[in-house]
Amino acid sequence: MAKLLTDIQTELEGCRRCALSETRTNLVFGVGNPHAEVMFIGEAPGKQEDLGAEPFIGAAGKYLNSLLELAGLKREDIYIANVLKCRPPENRDPRPEEIEVCTPFLREQVQAINPEILVTLGNFATRFILKTDKGISVLRGQIHITGRFSVLPIFHPAAAIYDRSKEAIMEDDFRLLGRLISKRREERAQRVEHAQRAEHAQRAEHAQRAECTQQVENAERGLQ
Ligand code: URA
User: Fold this and answer.
1) How much distance in Å is there from the Cα of 207 to the middle of ligand 1?
2) Domain hosting residue 20, numbered range
3) Is 114 part of any domain?
4) pLDDT means over runs of 10, the chain (224 residues)
5) For a pLDDT cut of 90, what percent of the chain falls above it?
6) 3-class DSSP assignment, residue 95
7) How many angstroms separate the Cα of 134 from the Cα of each of 10, 21, 122?
8) Fewest C-beta in 10 Å: which of 30, 55, 60, 193?
9) pLDDT tens profile 47-56
């Protein structure tokens, strides 16, 4: 049974599991719709996120918000969290030991939300979710299946802010996300319809059997 998000957050309160706790201002747990069909995973809080205790509220977050529209999403539709919950000094890359102690909580967040689709932003989130050493340039733009999740790796929005030539690719990938969401919704609707038809058929069969039994009983009574 998955833990509740509030319980996971309580467990992380005042976390001192790694040295990032000494330099952070706030732990950045994650935010959004707890029943989201799409969960985004970033790398680690930056300066604004560290101050505001919320993921993706700085420049990369503003850019991300503008891209969501291309997938037919609003910020309040999604849940968003990071591989690391605390800001690495000067925004350096997450270290293996930090990833090791922090990601069990991310795993629990994924289980609590149980989204249909995981969007991994950049190398660190993609490598953690897909358990791969391959880079984001190779993996982006394709839908990967892991367990019950569809995973769409996308460049980190900050990478596209630094390198504007990535903007068109980002837009393509968010349109692809929109198509993936539509496909998963259609599949879900088909599953519901299929289950309803099966239930209807079963009820009809029960009713028919009951009617037959009644007829046999009536006939037997007539013979007595
Ligand atoms: N970059 C990230 O990976 N996460 C944030 O929350 C902000 C910037």
Assistant:
1) 58
2) 5-187
3) yes
4) 97 98 98 98 98 98 98 98 98 98 98 98 98 98 97 98 98 98 96 96 95 91 80
5) 96
6) coil
7) 34, 30, 11
8) 193
9) 999 999 999 9
Residue 183 in domain? yes
Q: Name the 3-class secondary structure at 80.
A: strand
In a domain, 224, yes or no: no
Q: List C-alpha distances in Å: 60 to 49, 95, 101, 115, 156.
A: 10, 21, 25, 23, 8
User: What are the beta bridge partners of residue 146?
Assistant: 149
| DSSP string covering 30-70 | -EE-TT-SEEEEES---HHHHHHTSSS-SHHHHHHHHHHGG
Residue 207 burial (C-beta neighbours within 10 Å; 0-12, 13-18, 19+): exposed
Atom of ligand 1 nearest to the CA of 83: 3
Domain count within the chain = 1
Q: What is the pTM of this model?
A: 0.91
Q: Which two tokens stand for residue 146?
A: 């892991």
Task: Render pLDDT for 141-189 as a digit per residue (tens, 0 to 9).
Answer: 999 999 999 999 999 999 999 999 999 999 999 999 999 999 999 999 9
Q: How far is the CA of 211 from the centre of ligand 1 (A)?
A: 64
Tell me, what CATH number does 77's domain have? Answer: 3.40.470.10
